[in-house]
Amino acid sequence: MAIDPDAEIDHGAPLTPYRQLAEILRARIQRGDWTPGRAISSETQLVQQYGLARTTVRRAIAVLVEEGVVFTVPQRGTFVAQESDEPPAGQ
């Protein structure tokens, strides 16, 4: 499913808000907003930017982690994964 990287969350859409956010973040990564190895916006920033609950943001990030798009480092943030099949250094 392709979502515009500049889309806003549509609470009336059939796709849940956390899935919408996951697709928006994926599109932003593909567009180059964040490059491999670099941190994406913090949970707090995403909560404020998209008007979502922190748990919703965490679920969206969890989807991307599960798919290997991003990885999290405790106390550091969420980072864009390398495009290869190999896990990032330190993982």
Please provide a written account of the structure.
The chain has 91 residues and is mostly helical. Helices cover 40% and strands 9% of the residues. The protein is built from 3 helices and 2 strands; from the N terminus they run H-H-H-E-E. It has helices spanning 17-31, 43-50, 54-66, and strands at residues 70-73, 77-80. The chain has a two-stranded antiparallel sheet with strand order 1-2. Helix 1 (17-31) crosses helix 3 and helix 2 packs across helix 3. The mean pLDDT is 92.
Quick summary of this structure?
The protein has about 90 residues and is mostly helical.
Helix content: 25-40%
Q: For the report, how would you describe the main beta sheet?
A: 2 strands, antiparallel
Low-confidence runs: none
Task: Give the quaternary arrangement of the chains.
Answer: single chain
Number of helices: 3
Query: What is the helix/strand order?
Result: HHHEE
**Estimated structural class:** mainly alpha
Tell me the overall shape: globular
Computed CA radius of gyration, to the nearest angstrom: 13 Å
First and last CA, distance = 29 Å
Number of strands: 2
Spatial sequence of strands, sheet with the most strands = 1-2
Strand content: 5-15%
> What does the average pLDDT come to?
92
